[in-house]
Amino acid sequence: MAARKTTKKSEVSPEEMLSYYRDMLLIRRFEEKAGQLYGMGLIGGFCHLYIGQEAVVVGLEAAAEEGDKRITSYRDHGHMLACGMDPKGVMAELTGREGGYSKGKGGSMHMFSKEKNFYGGHGIVGAQVPLGAGLAFADRYKENGRVTFTYFGDGAANQGQVYESFNMAALWKLPVIFVIENNQYAMGTSQKRSTSTDEIHKRGEPFGIPGEMVDGMDVISVKEAGERAVAHCRKGDGPYILEIKTYRYRGHSMSDPAKYRTREEVQKMREERDPIEQVRAKLLSGKSITEDKLKEIDKEIKEIVNASAEFAKESPEPAVEELWTDIYATEIPQEVN
Amino acid sequence: MARMTMIEAIRDAHTLAMEADDDVVVMGEDVGYFGGVFRCTAGLQKRFGVQRCFDTPISELGIVGTAVGMAAFGLKPVVEIQFADYMYPAYDQIVSEAARLRYRSAGEFTCPMVVRMPTGGGIFGAQTHSQSPEALFTHVAGLKTVVPSNPQDAKGLLLAAINDPDPVIFLEPKRLYNGPFDGHFDRPSQSWGKHPLGEVETGYYETPLGTANIVREGSAATLLAYGTMVHVALAAVEESGVDVEVIDLRTLLPLDLETIAESVSRTGRCIVLHEATLTSGYGAEVTALIQGECFYSLEAPVLRVAGWDTPYPHAQEWDYFPGPERVKRAIATVMEG
Q: Which of A139, B20, B156, B173 fits B120 for a cystine, CB–CB 3.0-4.6 Å?
């Protein structure tokens, strides 16, 4: 899915539109299922759902090419599904099973895929940002023409290491796209209460990094912005910032009392700006896509998600011996009693 | 063989590693144009180009984070943190990312990185240029920690560290850069020019991590030391007239427990030395291991001689530093037991 490419800007065929619909729907249904499994006690600990933000990763994956890299924070399920990782492996990591991408060692926030150039899955707010710059450094060093999508949230945008990374990325002209997924809440603190500006993308200006604000509820706007950013990086002009205004419908994590915003605010966003509904309406307004075709896709997605949940329930729990593997290349013996 | 200071030996190791592998890059504050505050990387930029040996901004967290990203995509960054005391901002990246990448990706991604830092006191650096933070690293699963005590070992251990598939913290006792130091601060400085271990093998060789070195054989007691304290130990033993075995641990993790246990079981008495503060210091770990391995051979309680539990002082440096007089007192005590 990552290698999808359009020939001309702003020309989106019905087939492409349909694939965005499909990819966004997969994320939403997957996350709904994860929420259910959490409620049933099958997923423990932390679980940050991506519902509402689907257009961000699907739009940017549409602008990516084979070999481009992506790295993100702990709200990572959407990124993994969008870059083509197997929903079964993701769900089984949530349930902490052997079949999970990290054999149950990572959990919801820590998953990786070399095959899909997905570099995690990082649980410390902002810690993935310099890593993204480093990945881009390695690309530039190898002169392979690749770019790295480095995602972080509006909350992480107040971490010092983000600006250390901006400076180095600009100084060394690294092919990195800093994607600020601005869902407007750093856990329970609104942007207004935590951030000195309502235009975070302009914080790149003093470093000489161009940035733009993007409507993150519209997958086509995201894709087009992604293409501009990718073109900038591939030309060798250094980093680029996309501040993608988005909205998460669910809580920060599963234990969020949601006292920091009104029910009406969430409801209004869902009704008026939902990224999936927008695409659905566009598809149906054209001639080529029928309601039946969409139903078929809905059914197909449901089956994929159900299969992932089944797999995640049935995959065995990792053996306790697994606790001591993958710490070092060669295990350092330790006393176990 | 060639005469080298520890600085020259470390520089030689960098040069050989960079010659052997294009993926080895050297980065840090002042390492490129200036050649490093202690000159350990002098000439590397000129020889290998600015792409492979380069200056970074003063951004420790960002530097280490960037290096983790580079390492995740197959480069082998060798990072210099100008003083170990400057490491604290980078500790998050060292612990949460570098040390844990292999584990949480179930072996999919690794971090073959070396972070070099001048460590320890004896140069009137006071609080922020004299500390010995090794226990903060040995406490972290996923890291290896190395402390050389002479040019010959420094070169071989650094080459082994750069070639190691896991992140290695390489602590260079700054007081030993230009010559051995036995704690007799009031005597003229010695140089490596006349010391047997200033005679360094030419060409590429590795000193395997996890092998201790018996630097003085003895039968009455065992002194365990690393870094500068190896030289203090040797002086104290000669002055005490007691036939004490001195072991240079060389790597703290992995630890060569076999060599230690063999020696202590034979001598029945043991003292652990370090410059770092006493409480929760590395000596506590070694002491616990010894009582587990050698309990029935012990003739006396295991003693520790370490820095006091105070901030590293300026004026009273030689009251703080665990010099030969304190070590001799400990030898007398352990022999009475």
A: B173
